[in-house]
Amino acid sequence: MPALRYRGPAAYDYEAPPLTGTWAFGRDIVLHVAEVKGTSNGVATPRLRFGGSVQGRAAVFPIEIQRPPVDSVPSEIHFIRPNAVALSPDGQDLGLVVHSAVGEYDSTYTLHRIPARTLAARIYAMTAVNARSEGDLAASRSFCALAVAADAAAARAACEP
C-alpha cells in the first residue's frame, strides 16, 4: 500500500495516497475529497465531502462524512481527513478510511464503503441537475443517461423522466 504524504505543519498532517486499481468510470469522473470547515454551537465541526467532477465540470459531493460522536460533551474537532481511498480488488466497491482528531491523544477512524456504480450514478445525477439548472438540457440528458446506466436506483430521484 502506498505511504501517506506529509502535508505539515502538524505531526498528524498527512493526506491519502492516489487511488490505485481499475476505476471503471475513469474516462468521465475524477474523484474529489474535500475537508469543509464548519461550526456547531460555536464548536469546530469539520466534515469530509466525497464526490467527483464529470468531464471537467464543477465537482459535486454526494457523500458527506462527519466525525461520529465519542461522548456527550461537544469537543472541538481539529481535522477530518482521508487516510485511504481504495477500490476493492474486483473494482466493485470504493472505500474510505477517515481520520479525525479532537485532542492530542484522541483519534477516531471511520470507515465508509459504497458500491462504485452507486457513487458514479450519484455523481452523474448531481451533475445532470447542475447542468439542467444552467439551462444545458442536452448535457443534463446525457449525464442522466450515464447515471441510469451506472445504477438506475441511485439515479432515480434526479433523473426521473
Structure characterization notes:
This protein has 161 residues and is α+β, with helices and mostly antiparallel strands. The protein is built from 3 helices and 10 strands. The strands form 4 sheets. A 3-stranded antiparallel β-sheet has the order 3-6-7. A 3-stranded antiparallel β-sheet has the order 8-9-10. Strand 1 and strand 2 form a beta hairpin. Helix 1 runs antiparallel to helix 2. The longest helix is centred in the C-terminal third of the chain and has 18 residues. It is globular, with a radius of gyration of 17 Å. The termini are far apart. The model has no long low-confidence stretch (mean pLDDT 83).
Summarize the structure.
The chain is an alpha+beta fold. The protein has three helices and ten strands; from the N terminus they run ββββββββββααα.
